[in-house]
């Protein structure tokens, strides 16, 4: 089934070349089918790259999916044109009257800041609170995961002695949970962050379940026990060369960065890295959309509103 995207979105042409079934809005409206409505709050600086990465994963399931991109109103991104934002993005004010089946909040380059010092922190917390009622299931990535753990569960972050960057091995704590159904006992995934959360704090929180972790990189997949919130502390959505791009960017800035761990062949930054996590990336998003969005979301949100009003 297709993923529905805004007309003329630049990522669309690339997705078509990769044989991913995309459908623009005008054609999708003619189909007599209830698609899933997914909201993506994209806080990453290079928004077009993140759009493409997430659309690849959202588009590789049998479910028809409408994607709405959300941008902060309280902070204007410096790495994407205003015309791109105006054409393809909404603000929270424009969508807060709607209901969504799923929501993704991405990472953001603000992890070294205190949460309350982030320009758009109040806006993000308002979105997260709104989502408790208006979204069936939420996925949070990297800084988004840390923000959700802090806001919803009171778990803070701490700065690492050096950047956690590379491809790390992870294990699963419970293979019977639907979110990790089909995962290997051990698998790899990318991380790219300067901060982390305590694995003990996650384990000791009665509202959370630690599904996957790395001995080196710490907690990775965390799920609330009501299955409403899914926190991913790394970047399974990354392309093969994303960590290389980040490394080269930091080197050009003169930052004291080390080579990403287990990433470049023979630790040679001149060699092209391979994507060794692709299968589990697709599996995670497939499981999320199937088990926690499609099978849990109401067919008609108006019916839910009527039931709530009746019980009140």
Automatic annotation (TrEMBL):
It catalyses: L-homoserine + acetyl-CoA = O-acetyl-L-homoserine + CoA. Coiled coil: none annotated. SUPFAM superfamilies: Class I glutamine amidotransferase-like. It comes from the Bacteria. Its EC number is 2.3.1.31. The active site is at 142 (acyl-thioester intermediate), 235 (proton acceptor), 237. The record marks 192 as: Important for substrate specificity. Its main location: cytoplasm. Keywords: Acyltransferase, Amino-acid biosynthesis, Cytoplasm, Methionine biosynthesis, Transferase. Pathway: Amino-acid biosynthesis; L-methionine biosynthesis via de novo pathway; O-acetyl-L-homoserine from L-homoserine: step 1/1. Substrate binds at residues 163, 192, 249. Signal peptide: none annotated. One of its GO terms (molecular function) is homoserine O-succinyltransferase activity. Belongs to the MetA family. This is Homoserine O-acetyltransferase. The lineage of its organism: Bacteria, Bacillati, Bacillota, Bacilli, Bacillales.
């Amino acid at each position: 089934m297709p993923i529905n995207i805004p007309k003329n979105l630049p990522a669309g042409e690339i997705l078509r070349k990769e044989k991913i079934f995309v459908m623009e809005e005008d054609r999708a409206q003619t189909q007599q089918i209830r698609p899933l409505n997914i909201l993506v709050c994209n806080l990453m600086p290079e928004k077009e790259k993140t759009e493409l990465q997430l659309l690849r994963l959202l588009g590789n399931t049998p479910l028809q999916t409408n994607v709405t991109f959300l941008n902060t109103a309280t902070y204007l991104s410096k790495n994407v044109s205003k015309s791109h934002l105006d054409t393809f993005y909404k603000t929270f004010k424009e969508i807060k009257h709607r209901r969504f089946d799923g929501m993704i909040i991405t990472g953001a380059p603000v992890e070294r800041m205190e949460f309350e010092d982030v320009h758009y922190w109040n806006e993000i917390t308002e979105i997260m609170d709104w989502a408790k009622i208006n979204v069936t299931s939420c996925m949070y990535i990297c800084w988004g995961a840390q923000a959700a753990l802090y806001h919803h569960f009171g778990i803070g972050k701490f700065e690492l002695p050096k950047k956690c960057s590379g491809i790390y091995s992870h294990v699963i704590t419970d293979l019977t949970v639907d979110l990790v159904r089909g995962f290997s006992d051990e698998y790899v995934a990318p991380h790219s962050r300067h901060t982390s959360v305590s694995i003990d704090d996650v384990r000791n929180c009665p509202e959370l379940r630690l599904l996957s972790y790395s001995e080196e990189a710490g907690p990775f997949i965390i799920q609330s026990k009501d299955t409403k919130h899914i926190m991913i502390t790394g970047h399974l959505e990354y392309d093969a060369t994303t960590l290389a791009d980040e490394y080269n960017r930091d080197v050009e800035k003169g930052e004291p960065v080390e080579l990403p761990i287990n990433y470049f062949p023979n630790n040679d930054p001149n060699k092209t890295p391979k994507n060794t996590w692709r299968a589990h990336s697709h599996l995670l998003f497939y499981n999320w959309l199937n088990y926690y969005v499609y099978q849990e979301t109401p067919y008609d949100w108006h019916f839910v509103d009527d039931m709530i009003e009746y019980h009140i």
